[in-house]
Amino acid sequence: MIIKLTGEFILIADGKTEIELPDVSNIKNLFEALENVYPTGKWSYCCVAVNGTMYQDDWLKTLKENDEVVIMPPIGGG
Predict the structure, then answer these.
(1) pTM for this one?
(2) Measuring CA to CA, which of 17, 35, 47, 64 is 20 to 30 A from 9?
(3) What would the pLDDT profile of 40-65 be if each residue is shown by its tens digit?
(4) Distances from the Cα of 67 to the Cα of 14, 41, 48, angstroms
(5) Measured distance CA(66)–CA(78) in Å, rounded
(6) Count of domains in the chain?
(7) Sheet of strand 53-55, all strands in order from the earlier edge strand to the far edge
(8) What CATH number did the domain enclosing 41 receive?
């Protein structure tokens, strides 16, 4: 699965805007895999868009191999 990174996550991933992660079945697994490769403690606070739909705090959202997944810094606001 190709994961697109934005914002500070590009810096965390050594300047990469896309990374590939195999065997990721849901958002929780995605965060765990990202933390294993790029340990920061910040992954679980990010926003995730899957096929253009935002998911925040929905860690059990199923991911498929052909999904477009974008990782973004937390969105502030009130």
Answers:
(1) 0.88
(2) 64
(3) 999 988 899 999 999 877 889 999 99
(4) 23, 24, 12
(5) 33
(6) 1
(7) 18-20, 2-5, 69-72, 47-50, 53-55
(8) 3.10.20.30
| Tokens, residue 59 | 């860690």
Per the structure, the complete domain to which residue 64 belongs is given by 2-72
Is the separation of the CB atoms in 12 and 32 below 8 Å? no
Q: Tokens 């934005």 map to which residue?
A: 6
Residue 43 sits at the vertex; the CA angle it makes with 45 and 12, to the nearest 5 degrees, is 125
C-alpha 49/C-alpha 70 separation (Å) is: 5
CA–CA dist 7, 17 (Å, integer): 9
Q: What is the pLDDT of residue 70?
A: 97
Q: Mean pLDDT for the chain?
A: 91
Reported as type and span, the H/E element at residue 2 is strand 2-5
